[in-house]
């Protein structure tokens, strides 16, 4: 098969014979003319199908190693569509470290429609197996979790799921299709918050769902068309553009991250680093077996000799912001930002200490990023 980087740029080939345009045009039309009553047309109404969105969906399906993909107005809309294939009375097994918004969707929305869940640490296959009930229909998890970067093997979970006739749904936002393609490792449905790595520039909200099986595709398409949470033609175009540089960006992000980890390892106030991409870190072997790299996000803990709030406030190039996967570097304090909804006890149970810092590494010059970290660590040191 053609290499991934070539496919990033050339799939799908625009078929615009009228102008020879090398990119897919932004089709704004909301409705399409029928040649005559009863004619079979490819597009009739923009919610149901749009050529710009379709080109993006074809691109994502190819990169994910799937057959069909669907683009939505946010990652949450994509996750909603993937979960809406289940019905009242179904039960799901869900990773205990999944994205907070997905928990909210399950616990405060889908529960009202009769979908129940059991949370487990999906690294533990025995725990998954013992959570299976007669009405269990699927397993939903993130192969690399936020903010602790714990690694679950897609292949192992999918194998177990197949034995029990369960649907495997993977939110692969942290790795992106550049680093791993869960559909080729046994997963049935793969979600991306395309707001993150796929778009890559913090200027598009989007989500994608990719599948390899026609029956899942039919069910997801039904939800996309029935609920209408589609990605606009303009955002489809911007996302398709962002995707073309996915591997360039992620290679630089991971190269920068490696140098940042080396710097952090030399700092006495840094007591722990979470990053499965380097030998010796937990999850390294499992990650290596399923992915080309561990992505551009890491987290670390400051010991009580440094003030984490002063540290994040003092950074300049690392913008104090949630989200991840963009060209610019970001920093956040999970205990007070992304995971602030959890009580202090729940945070500690989830392994989120007050001194835990999450970095999303960008594509800047790494010397500048390290200098920024250095000055912020210095000013955050607590006096004797
Ligand atoms: C951001 C994120 C989401 C939600 O995506 P939105 O585009 O913000 O709706 C879902 N899963 C993961 C892992 C995320 O990081």
TrEMBL record:
One of its GO terms (biological process) is transsulfuration. One of its GO terms (molecular function) is pyridoxal phosphate binding. Its EC number is 4.4.1.13. GO terms for cellular component: cytoplasm. The modification N6-(pyridoxal phosphate)lysine is found at residue 196. InterPro entries: Cys/Met-Metab_PyrdxlP-dep_enz, Cys_met_metab_PP, PyrdxlP-dep_Trfase, PyrdxlP-dep_Trfase_major, PyrdxlP-dep_Trfase_small. PROSITE patterns: CYS_MET_METAB_PP. Keywords: Amino-acid biosynthesis, Lyase, Methionine biosynthesis, Pyridoxal phosphate. It is an enzyme of class 4 (lyase). Its cofactor is pyridoxal 5'-phosphate. PANTHER family: CYSTATHIONINE BETA-LYASE, TRANS-SULFURATION ENZYME FAMILY MEMBER. Belongs to the trans-sulfuration enzymes family. This is cysteine-S-conjugate beta-lyase. It comes from Limosilactobacillus gastricus DSM 16045.
């Amino acid at each position: 098969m053609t290499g991934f980087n070539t496919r990033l740029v050339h799939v799908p080939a625009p078929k615009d014979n009228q102008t020879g345009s090398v990119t897919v045009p932004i089709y704004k039309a909301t409705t399409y003319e029928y040649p005559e009553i009863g004619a079979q047309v490819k597009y009739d109404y923009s919610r149901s199908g749009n050529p710009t969105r379709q080109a993006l969906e074809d691109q994502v399906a190819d990169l994910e190693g799937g057959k069909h993909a669907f683009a939505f107005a946010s990652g949450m809309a994509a996750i909603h569509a993937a979960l809406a294939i289940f019905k009242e009375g179904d039960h799901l097994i869900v990773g205990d470290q999944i994205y907070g918004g997905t928990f909210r969707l399950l616990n405060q929305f889908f529960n009202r429609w009769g979908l129940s869940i059991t949370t487990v640490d999906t690294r533990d296959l025995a725990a998954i197996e013992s959570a299976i009930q007669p009405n269990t229909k699927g397993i939903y998890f993130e192969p690399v979790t936020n903010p602790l970067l714990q690694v679950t093997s897609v292949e192992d979970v999918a194998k177990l799921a197949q034995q029990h006739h369960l649907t495997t749904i993977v939110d692969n936002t942290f790795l992106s299709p550049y680093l791993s393609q869960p559909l080729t490792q046994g997963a049935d449905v793969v979600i991306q918050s395309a707001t993150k790595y796929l778009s890559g520039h913090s200027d598009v909200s989007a989500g994608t769902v990719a599948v390899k099986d026609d029956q899942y595709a039919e069910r997801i398409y039904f939800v996309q068309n029935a609920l209408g949470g589609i990605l606009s033609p303009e955002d489809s175009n911007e996302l398709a553009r962002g995707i073309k540089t996915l591997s360039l960006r992620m290679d630089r992000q991971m190269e920068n991250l490696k140098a940042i980890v080396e710097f952090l390892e030399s700092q006495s106030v840094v007591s722990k680093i979470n990053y499965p991409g380097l030998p010796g870190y937990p999850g390294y072997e499992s990650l290596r077996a399923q992915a080309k790299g561990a992505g551009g996000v890491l987290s670390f803990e400051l010991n009580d000799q440094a003030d984490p709030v002063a540290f994040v406030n003092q950074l300049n190039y690392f913008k104090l912001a949630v989200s991840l996967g963009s060209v610019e570097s970001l920093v956040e304090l999970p205990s007070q930002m992304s995971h602030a909804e959890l009580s202090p006890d729940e945070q500690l149970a989830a392994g989120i200490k007050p001194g835990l810092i999450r970095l999303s590494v960008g594509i800047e010059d790494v010397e500048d990023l390290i200098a920024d970290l250095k000055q912020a660590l210095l000013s955050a040191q607590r006096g004797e």
